[in-house]
């Protein structure tokens, strides 16, 4: 169904618990959330296609702040108040930016450091290729490192990927064009706003996060929490949906 500018699925009922909004990663779509929706067992859940993905229309700009505004239109259209935002990969960046601007109960970040770090360095070094006809070689290299083969075959089928060049360049524009120090300061401001709004933050990853990143994040958000769920690659919400649903439940208390 269409919610504002975005396409999405609304399931479950308003049972008094905070609603849950699910935001997929770059090039994928809302189909990836099927196992987690089932694990959430009936509570109000909205799984959205981000702009340019799935059935949602493309845009000229995919800057996180603008995508967060579009997301707020969908949240409002769905009649949701102060949702728990579950974001995978780049969807987690959008979730954090959203929670800095609009009321949110919590952000559950699935396998996405909010600082680009070594990934940003790699992406900037590959920028000429990304902007050329061989851009898919960069995406395919990244996809090969996501651990898709760690998922059961039937769950790999949920990962419908559409790596259009304008999506990659648009969603990665900040990393490619904003100096790392400036981007760090932007993230600090966003996280401070998130904390001021009393939004909880929980990071789930396939392996322990870099200690330097963990120290940085907790220096900004002292109550941030971390959980490691190995064995499902970049997609713990697909491989271990019950474990992720338990974390969502703790963020709803």
Automatic annotation (TrEMBL):
<dbReference type="Pfam" id="PF12697">
    <property type="entry name" value="Abhydrolase_6"/>
</dbReference>
<feature type="domain" description="AB hydrolase-1">
    <location>
        <begin position="20"/>
        <end position="246"/>
    </location>
</feature>
<dbReference type="InterPro" id="IPR029058">
    <property type="entry name" value="AB_hydrolase_fold"/>
</dbReference>
<dbReference type="InterPro" id="IPR000073">
    <property type="entry name" value="AB_hydrolase_1"/>
</dbReference>
<dbReference type="InterPro" id="IPR050266">
    <property type="entry name" value="AB_hydrolase_sf"/>
</dbReference>
<protein>
    <recommendedName>
        <fullName>AB hydrolase-1 domain-containing protein</fullName>
    </recommendedName>
</protein>
């Amino acid at each position: 169904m269409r919610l504002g500018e975005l396409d999405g699925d609304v399931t479950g009922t308003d049972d008094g618990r905070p609603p849950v909004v699910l935001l997929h990663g770059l090039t994928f779509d809302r189909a990836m959330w099927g196992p987690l929706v089932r694990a959430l067992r009936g509570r109000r859940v909205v799984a959205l296609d981000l702009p340019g993905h799935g059935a949602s229309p493309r845009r000229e700009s995919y800057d996180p702040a603008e995508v967060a505004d579009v997301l707020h239109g969908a949240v409002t259209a769905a009649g949701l108040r102060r949702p728990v935002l579950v974001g995978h990969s780049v969807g987690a960046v959008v979730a954090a930016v959203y929670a800095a601007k609009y009321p949110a109960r919590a952000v559950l970040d699935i396998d996405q450091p909010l600082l680009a770090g070594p990934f940003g360095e790699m992406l900037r070094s590959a920028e000429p290729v990304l902007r050329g006809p061989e851009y898919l070689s960069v995406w395919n290299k990244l996809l090969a490192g996501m651990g898709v083969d760690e998922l059961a075959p039937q769950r790999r089928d949920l990962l419908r990927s559409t790596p259009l060049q304008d999506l990659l360049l648009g969603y990665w524009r900040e990393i490619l064009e904003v100096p790392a120090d400036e981007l760090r300061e932007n993230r600090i401001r966003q996280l401070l706003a998130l904390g001021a709004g009393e939004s909880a933050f929980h990071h789930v990853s396939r392996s322990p996060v870099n200690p330097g990143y963990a120290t940085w994040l907790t220096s900004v958000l002292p109550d941030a929490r971390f959980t490691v769920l190995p064995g499902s690659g970049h997609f713990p919400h697909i491989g271990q949906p019950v474990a992720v649903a338990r974390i969502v439940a703790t963020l709803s208390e």
